[in-house]
């Protein structure tokens, strides 16, 4: 039995967990390609920097080599931290822009024929889409339980939908 919501005179259906899951996989592939294009040059630069530091270590004294190694470790930690921030920024902005656009969903959601709306069935604002995107990070951080909630809640909402007061509906 499908659950329905009524907005004004229009009856719509909540998108099921399976549709949402496939949309998430499609979006994961798309975002993965974006990560690769953006992060490949960054990773190459880090690799070249490490290789250069290793080559120069052969001509250094023990103290100089230790100081250079510590500097290299610090640079790698900073680079990894920057990469993590870039990854989250890409993810949050991708979903926020797409879900608040006239398409009302990411490319994966469009492919699955579903859309994101507010509790009144209307297109969501960028702010609400941004909040929902941040909520997705939380949903994923807690062992993806926030995403799994969509399979068991009455309105098929994940934790991120509850945080942002949104619904995912079939078009």
Automatic annotation (TrEMBL):
<protein>
    <submittedName>
        <fullName>RDD family protein</fullName>
    </submittedName>
</protein>
<feature type="domain" description="RDD">
    <location>
        <begin position="14"/>
        <end position="164"/>
    </location>
</feature>
<keyword id="KW-1003">Cell membrane</keyword>
<keyword id="KW-0812">Transmembrane</keyword>
<keyword id="KW-0472">Membrane</keyword>
<dbReference type="InterPro" id="IPR010432">
    <property type="entry name" value="RDD"/>
</dbReference>
<dbReference type="Pfam" id="PF06271">
    <property type="entry name" value="RDD"/>
</dbReference>
<dbReference type="InterPro" id="IPR051791">
    <property type="entry name" value="Pra-immunoreactive"/>
</dbReference>
<feature type="transmembrane region" description="Helical">
    <location>
        <begin position="129"/>
        <end position="152"/>
    </location>
</feature>
<keyword id="KW-1133">Transmembrane helix</keyword>
<feature type="transmembrane region" description="Helical">
    <location>
        <begin position="66"/>
        <end position="97"/>
    </location>
</feature>
<feature type="transmembrane region" description="Helical">
    <location>
        <begin position="21"/>
        <end position="46"/>
    </location>
</feature>
């Amino acid at each position: 039995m499908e659950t329905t919501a009524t907005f004004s005179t229009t009856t719509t259906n909540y998108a099921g967990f399976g549709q949402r899951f496939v949309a998430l996989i499609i979006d994961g592939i798309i975002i993965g390609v974006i990560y690769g294009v953006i992060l490949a040059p960054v990773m190459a630069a880090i690799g070249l920097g490490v290789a250069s530091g290793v080559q120069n270590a052969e001509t250094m004294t023990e103290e100089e080599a230790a100081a250079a190694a510590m500097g290299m470790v610090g640079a790698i930690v900073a680079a990894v931290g920057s990469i993590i921030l870039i990854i989250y920024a890409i993810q949050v902005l991708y979903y926020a822009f797409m879900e608040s656009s006239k398409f009302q969903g990411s490319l994966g959601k469009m492919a699955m024929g579903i859309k994101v709306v507010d509790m009144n069935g209307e297109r969501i604002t960028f702010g609400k889409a941004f909040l929902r995107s941040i909520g997705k990070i939380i949903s994923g951080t807690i062992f993806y339980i926030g995403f799994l909630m969509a399979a068991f809640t009455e309105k098929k909402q994940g934790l991120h939908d509850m945080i942002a007061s949104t619904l995912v509906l079939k078009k």
